[in-house]
Amino acid sequence: MKKREFNKQKRKTVLSKVKDFFKDEYGGNLIEYALLI
Fold first, then answer.
1. What number of CA atoms fall less than 13 Å from residue 10's CA on the CB side?
2. What is the span of the domain harbouring residue 10?
3. Of 22, 24, 16, which Cα lies nearest the Cα of 32?
């Protein structure tokens, strides 16, 4: 796998982990708010 592709996948994984964390903590409201900014 190319390094660039790996970084892309890694970032996606981290992002989904963060999203899941905030969904668990705040019911997803914070994510929606953050996406609007």
1. 7
2. 3-36
3. 22
Angle between helices 29-36 and 3-26 (to 10 degrees): 120
Tokens linked to 21: 């964390």
Q: What is the pTM of this model?
A: 0.40
CB 1 within 8 A of CB 7: no
- Number of structural domains (the chain) is 1
At 29, which helix (H) or strand (E)?
Answer: helix 29-36
> What CA–CA distance (Å, rounded) separates 20 from 1?
26
User: Residue 16: pLDDT above 80?
Assistant: yes
